[in-house]
Design brief:
This protein is an alpha/beta fold and 429 residues long. The protein has 2 domains: 313 residues, Adenylosuccinate Synthetase, subunit A, domain 3 (Adenylosuccinate Synthetase, Chain A, domain 3); 96 residues, Adenylosuccinate Synthetase, subunit A, domain 2, CATH 1.10.300.10. The protein has a 10-stranded mixed β-sheet with strand order 9-7-5-2-10-1-11-15-19-20, with helices on both faces. Strands 14, 16, 17 and 18 form a 4-stranded mixed β-sheet that branches. Strand 16 and strand 17 form a beta hairpin. Helix 3 packs across helix 4. The longest helix has 22 residues. The radius of gyration is 22 Å and the shape is globular. The model has no long low-confidence stretch (mean pLDDT 97). The chain binds guanosine-5'-diphosphate, 6-O-phosphoryl inosine monophosphate (IMO) and magnesium ion (MG).
Length: 429
């Protein structure tokens, strides 16, 4: 058996969907264990693009099984829409998608509260996706959550919703000056969702363990990125789940000893959506060029992504807190044509140089990046399939990243398509 966690090493959108789809070729089961439809994972198969928000990217391989774990938060309407569009596109979902009965549901008040809280934060807003993710996880921690199993039982659901909605409506009315929500609308709508989702509900942890026991290969598909982790990210400019590799354990019900490795997905430059400090951000033409070349617009909200050079101070921190055993470099093709490519190797904070990533965003906001310049390449690399075909300067760039992070490169992605992948040391092949 083998089990690998795929984790974003920056602020999300590193190309996890593309990489998970590729790795699924050598896997049997793909598990989403945290986050919700704040994620947008893009997969391109035979020129056709699919953006997945909740369902594991492995679903595009007809013979593979997929699990949505207890650590996720589910908006049933989005999930059902995603299921329908997969069916319409000719992908089967029945019998090979299993959803944990303990996954928490995103309720209508979560979406309203997400937006209302952002309004209250004013200039300190986080720039959330507005999908209700934070309020849903908050309710989970606060023991006000409604789980998938709850809506499967109409009587149980009625009782829970009555008490939670009384509290939420008071909040909406008294604190946020919003209209209260009608019980019957939510109750009936969610019972309808429950009927349509019933056949997918399962003891997800047991399914994962049965796969491991049967010597199957399991891939855990992380969402978001390490710097958006609730504990170790750039708090408060983070999401509300455990995005680090360790989140796969609690979010799917496996122990650390069940995992064989952690593969960190590293975009060859850096992007961020939403607010919060970003030391290597480029607010000039170079940043614009990265955004344009890399089509850096959100797969979920369509917002333009902030762009900047690769930050190895940040990445070293991500390697450490994830225990990364390998990395995958994505989107280096976007750098083709740049005369010089910069890597941030140290920070200067208040005139003091450091290679340590600060633990506080207040310090991160003061960083002046220290760069190392490497020569770029002009050759098109999007059809390279082996290391040897890569231009020498591209090889140098990749080797330097490997050296700085001290983690071997497993794969290099040179384009969005499944075939546009260079296999260096794929543990699942
Ligand atoms: P995720 O959230 O980590 O799955 O990443 P997104 O799907 O949000 O964003 C990555 C974008 O880059 C998507 O549009 C992918 O199709 C695309 N992509 C992935 N890998 C590559 C690559 O190697 N080169 C290029 N040019 N695009 C890529
Ligand atoms: P994938 O899986 C990039 C960001 C939002 C915001 C912050 C909090 O596609 O990489 P939330 O709605 O989660 O409360 O927003 O987190 N964010 C992401 N940024 N990629 C994602 O997912 C993200 N999911 C959330 O932009 O800054
Ligand atoms: Mg994304």
């Amino acid at each position: 058996m083998s089990a690998y966690v795929i984790v974003g090493m920056q602020w999300g959108d590193e190309g996890k969907g593309k990489v998970v789809d590729y790795l699924t070729g050598g896997a049997d089961l793909v598990v989403r264990h945290q986050g919700g439809n704040n994620a947008g994972h893009t997969v391109v198969v035979k020129g056709r693009q699919t953006i997945l928000h909740l369902i594991p990217s492995g679903i595009l391989h007809a013979d593979k099984q997929c699990v949505i774990g207890n650590g996720t938060v589910l908006d049933p309407a989005v999930l059902l829409e995603e299921l329908d569009s997969l069916r319409e596109a000719g992908y089967s979902v029945e019998g090979r998608l299993f959803i944990s009965d303990n996954a928490h549901l995103i309720m209508p008040y979560h979406k309203i509260l997400d937006k209302a809280q952002e309004r209250f934060r004013g200039k300190d807003r986080i720039g959330t996706t507005g999908r209700g993710i934070g309020p849903a996880y908050a309710d989970k921690a606060d023991r006000f959550g409604i789980r998938l199993a709850d809506v499967m039982d109409a009587v149980l659901f009625r009782g829970k919703l009555e008490s939670v909605l009384a509290y939420k409506n008071a909040l909406l009315r008294e604190i946020f000056d919003e209209e209260p929500l009608a019980f019957d609308d939510i109750y009936e709508t969610y019972l309808g969702y429950a009927d349509r989702l019933r056949s997918f509900v399962a003891d997800a942890a047991k399914i994962v363990h049965e796969a491991l026991a049967a010597d199957k290969q399991v891939v855990f598909e992380g969402a978001q990125g390490s710097m958006l982790d609730l504990d170790h990210g750039t708090y408060p400019y983070v999401t509300s789940s455990i995005t680090l590799a360790g989140g796969a354990c609690s979010g799917a019900g496996v122990g650390p000893r069940d995992l064989d490795g952690v593969i960190g997905i590293v975009k060859a430059y850096t992007t961020r959506v939403g607010e919060g400090p970003f030391p290597t951000e480029l607010l000039d033409e170079t940043g614009e060029r990265l955004r344009k070349n890399g089509a850096e617009f959100g797969a979920t909200t369509g917002r333009p992504r902030r762009c900047g050079w690769l930050d190895c101070v940040l990445l070293k921190r991500s390697v450490m807190i994830n225990g990364a055993t390998g990395i995958v470099l994505t989107k280096p093709d976007v750098l083709t044509g740049f005369d010089t490519i910069r890597i941030c190797t140290a920070y200067e904070i208040d005139g003091v140089k450091t290679e340590d990533f600060p633990t506080q965003v207040t310090a991160l906001a003061k960083v002046t990046p220290v760069y190392e310049d490497l020569a770029g390449w002009s050759e098109d690399i999007t059809s390279c399939t082996t290391w040897d075909e890569l231009p020498e300067n591209a090889q140098r760039y990749f080797e330097r990243i490997e050296e700085l992070l001290n983690v071997p490169i497993a794969l290099i992605s040179v384009g969005p398509g499944r075939a546009q992948t260079i296999d260096c040391a794929n543990p699942l092949s």
